[in-house]
Amino acid sequence: MAERHLSSAGRTLEERVNMSRVQIEKVMTYLGVENPAPVIKQGRLWQRTPVNYQLDHDKIARLSAQREAEWREIQEFVGTDECLMAFLRRALDDPETEPCGHCANCLGEAVVPESYDHQLGVQAAAFLRWSSPSNACTTLIT
Q: From CA 25, how far away is CA 21, in angstroms rounded?
């Protein structure tokens, strides 16, 4: 990060670190919320601060281990033969872990069809695309 104004480096920074502009922006945002922050955003420009930033390897290791443990738990959930609600309750330290009697594992069969009509899937995808908050009308009609 030799450039003082990182945004003005443009393609140079992208080429030097072999990352897309979106990836660089995510890194800069992460660095901008560190305490103390090695960079700050002023307007549209990122600027270096006099902070000598050191990557927190212990924090990264802790977060990585936590995510790996969560991933193993998800894999256990997907592969379990026990009541899914009981599994979730136990994972969330709920003292009540009685079988629900309503999930696919309790019933011994899928609770929703495993196959569907292709055209219905296309219609559902179109509905979801157009009903997303980014496409919703924000004007209130009174």
A: 6
Q: For the chain, give every domain's residue range.
A: 7-48, 57-112
pLDDT of 44 strictly over 90: no
Distance from CA of residue 22 to its chain's centroid?
15
pLDDT in tens, 67-101: 999 999 999 999 999 999 999 999 999 998 899 99
**SS3 labels along the chain:** CCCCECHHHCHHHHHHHCCCHHHHHHHHHHHHHCCCCCEEEECCEEEECCCCCCCCHHHHHHHHHHHHHHHHHHHHHHHCCCCHHHHHHHHCCCCCCCCCCCCHHHHCCCCCCCCCCHHHHHHHHHHHHHCCCCCCCCCCCC
